[in-house]
What does this fold into?
Amino acid sequence: MAKVIKGGVVVSATGRIQQDVRIEGEKIVELGSNLDDSGSEVIDATGCFILPGFIDGHTHLELNNGAGSQNSADNFYTGSKAAVAKGTTTIIDMATPDKGGTLKACFAGWNSMAAGVSSCDYTYHMSIIEWNEEMKAEVADMFAVGLTTFKMYMAYENLRTSDKAIFEAIEEIKKHGGMLGVHCENGDLCDEVTLRCREAGELSTHYFPLTRPPAVEAEAVERYLTIAEMADYPVNIVHLSTKRALESVRRARQRGQKVFVETCPHYLALDESVYDLPNFEGGKYVCSPPIRSLEDQVALWEGIIDGSINTISTDHCTFNYKTQKILGKDDFSKTPSGLPGVEDRPAIIYTKGVAGGKITLERMVGLLSEDIAKQFLMYPQKGAIAVGSDADIVIWNPKPEGKISVKMQVSNVDYNPYEGFQTKGAAQEVYLRGIKVAENGQVVQEKTGKYVFRKGNA
Ligand code: URP
Ligand code: ZN
Ligand code: ZN
It folds into this structure.
């Protein structure tokens, strides 16, 4: 049966309009005033906004982390449920091959973990952790299976590659019109300073951010931008966290370079004082790059307001506090790195950004959905309330007030880094390709997610 959403205000990144929305099957088929609803299921959105389903462009739902070989607490089953419960209908997960493994094997492995299991739609950024002639040839194979975006690392012993590898990978990706995102931290310096902290017995989480200060991010961003300039191709910087790195991006853009910047909710809602919390509570916040100063936080919000930052995704990467994070209790460097976020991103950005008067709801739609879809080549299938688009729809009620708590969350992790955060606004109903998948924060239909096939821009 067709569905007609009535009484709501449709919002895009560029405007809003009171309109009804007709859904048939998986697609939006009509928009307009007073649509005929005879023979259709009517969905009442009075007093609410009709938003395109949110897209999280950076998750690690199935991470086997080098630090102590910890498996992430969430997997595709639990993490995707956490996503749709609060309005995120598509994720781009970081698929990471084994050392010596092929991209094709990794792609097949990620498909086997997601297919028939995921409750939201999904695709992947394929990580390139080694660079050789075989890898180079495999880039084309990824485009053939609809995967157009890649990730490389300048940090982490087990994941990082050389500048030459990044340069050549950009050149290869450019041939097909895809995009590379890079984790920008100077890995050599991070590792060396960590070693020195350990030798000096500086082992509490207080020292963790000092091992990865703003300078190591800024240096890596400058280097990545130089590599991209030499390759003459736009690139993406993932999880940018500092004022200093953002200033590097602004300078590159002034020189005419095209650069995309992602930041994450934890850099916008938390500050570095978390690392001084007693009883190893700081371990909950160990992530790379680290949580930064309030000055950085203010600068990132300014970057969001002035358009210097393009997208907000989460870097969702969960480890249980009691059994996994705790491994770093006597040595911060043994703490598995990463924070949850896929579930709470919409409420945090709405509360701090929109209700807090920093950004418009239109800007939030761009940051959390439309601009991510455009950047990662899934627009207008995703990221739009438009005729022909997938009926991925969030009916967003701006009125409810709540409090984030581990007790209420869907995610399978035993803590919430935003515990006690007062929220405004919530996803009242969530539709994934026309199917109601969540209502008032609870998943009502699971495992309906599908792989999103993308095409390169070449
Ligand atoms: O600490 C983090 N961010 N863990 C996930 C891996 C990454 O660097 O994105
Ligand atoms: Zn990263
Ligand atoms: Zn990440």
